[in-house]
Amino acid sequence: MKKIIGILGGMGPGATADAFEKLVASTPARKDQEHIPVIVASLPDIPDRTENIIHSGASPLPAMINSLNILKNAGASCIIMPCNTAHYWYDELRKQSDLPFISIIESTCERIIAEEKHPVALLATTATIRTRLYQNKLAKAGITYLLPDEKDQDNIMKSILLYKSGKSKSAYDTLLPCLEKLEKSGAKHFIMGCTEIPLILHDLSRQQPEKYIDTTEELIKKTIRWYYS
Amino acid sequence: MKKIIGILGGMGPGATADAFEKLVASTPARKDQEHIPVIVASLPDIPDRTENIIHSGASPLPAMINSLNILKNAGASCIIMPCNTAHYWYDELRKQSDLPFISIIESTCERIIAEEKHPVALLATTATIRTRLYQNKLAKAGITYLLPDEKDQDNIMKSILLYKSGKSKSAYDTLLPCLEKLEKSGAKHFIMGCTEIPLILHDLSRQQPEKYIDTTEELIKKTIRWYYS
Q1: What class of enzyme is it (chains A, B) (predicted)?
Q2: What interface predicted TM-score (ipTM) does this complex get?
Q3: Which residues on B lie below 8 Å from A25 (Cβ)?
């Protein structure tokens, strides 16, 4: 019985496609048949995660559990979820099945801690910041991190929503000044801690792979290690 | 009940990811929740289609039916299959379910015929050429087409397999001289009639979108029209 990776996606769909593409591109296969089996559930009508956490909007959990069950029934042997903010519900989701569930937050923090990449600035949704998904783990490991000020955080959120609405150029232009300010404040590395950010910063982050930590890529690298283990 | 697109993929995985990415990029959505629901089955351990048709290798049909059933059980309301050669089994697959199944061959031919894009050269696997998946439809509509000579066809097949083995630069270098010869022979347009070819010719075909007909893109455009119909 071959292992099948289940991608719990749709948050957002562009980030899901990016994760799938990165999985294919990073697999050491010489022909189709050697590639990793994948089932993707990209059912994006999931209530907005940040809206729920910040403004008490509808909970995304039931829709996320629905996607998880689709993947389980389709034969997935491991779940990954290429959305950082959605990991606020990681423990709840883990309770729904016995399948291994590789965390994007853990995958990313493991690399940052192992390579002592700090001071590191966190680029993420306002909900990911408020729920301290990264900060608690980094602080515990003695990694110094920087957060954007409130105005820049609003702009980062705006940039993510611009990208989700199809405006990738405006998203980039809105995000760039925030990076420059964080860099002036001492940031040596950036966690692209929302899976839309590697898409917004695609060209820039490819030019400086040591500076930009792509959470989607860290998740995929750990998934591939799990697959071959 | 929302419609869900089922992508019967894995042939190859890179082409599957490309189809998914093109679906997301071409959807007129302003936020995650407006995007088209998609389930992808990319279970690439499907016997090679060309090997079966040309050299009587194992049949890919049982594995394709398995993926189709996974999509059906997961709630797909329509099937698409981003692989041209696999459409040799299109009629057999259609018999397996009542779901609409949008053909990549039909989608592409409809555009070529409507826009009278000829003379058109066919770039495809040797199996797609031998089984006349495109030629019969084009000839019937009075579209003149060109096929590569035997040596160039071998190189096109080699280029596709190079891409599938991760060697995208060699794939491009192997394919390019075949295009130049077809162009000298009078081809005004090219059908990228294997879903790896839009990946091999990515930059070139984006520069000349009128010349290169991307079968994955034609399939996705028709799928989006179906979704909103």
Answers
A1: isomerase
A2: 0.96
A3: 14
The answer to whether the CB of B205 falls within 8 A of the CB of B212 is yes
B148 part of contact set with chain A, CB < 8 Å: no
Whether A63 has its CB under 8 Å from any CB of chain B: the answer is no
Distance CA A165, CA A161 (A): 6
**Inter-chain touch A32–B43, beta carbons under 8 Å:** no
Q: Find the CB nearest A24 among B14, B38, B41.
A: B14
User: Which of B11, B13, B40 comes nearest A39 by C-beta?
Assistant: B40
- Do B73 and A73 lie within an 8 Å CB cutoff? yes
Reference A23, options A228, A220, A222; nearest CA is A220
Taking alpha carbons only, the member of A189, A194, A188 closest to residue A216 is A194
Whether residue A148 contacts residue A156, with contact meaning beta carbons closer than 8 Å, is answered with yes
Interface membership of A33 toward B (CB under 8 Å): yes
Q: How far apart are CA B44 and CA A34, in angstroms?
A: 7
**Tokens found for residue B41:** 């089955």
In Å, how far are A121, A123, A170, A192, B112 from A151, measured between CA atoms? 15, 13, 17, 18, 51
Instruction: Count chain A–chain B contacts defined by CB atoms under 8 A.
Output: 142
What tens digit of pLDDT does each residue of A79-108 get?
999 999 999 999 999 999 999 999 999 999
Q: Please state, in angstroms and rounded to a whole number, the distance separating the CA atoms of residues B229 and B227.
A: 6
Q: What is the residue whose two structure tokens read 């629905």?
A: A66
pLDDT tens figures, B104-121? 999 999 999 999 999 999
pTM for the whole structure: 0.97
Burial of A18 (0-12, 13-18, 19+ CB in 10 A): buried
CA distance B95 to A127: 48
Q: How far is A57 from chain B (nearest CA, A)?
A: 14
H/E stretch holding A78 reads: strand A78-80
| Token code pair at residue B105 | 């061959």
- Whether residue A60 contacts residue A48, with contact meaning beta carbons closer than 8 Å, is answered with yes
Please give the helix or strand (H or E) that residue A6 lies within, else none. strand A5-8
Distance of CA A207 to the CA centre of its chain: 20
User: What domains, with CATH codes, occur in chain B?
Assistant: 5-103+217-228 (3.40.50.1860), 105-214 (3.40.50.1860)
DSSP label at B36? P
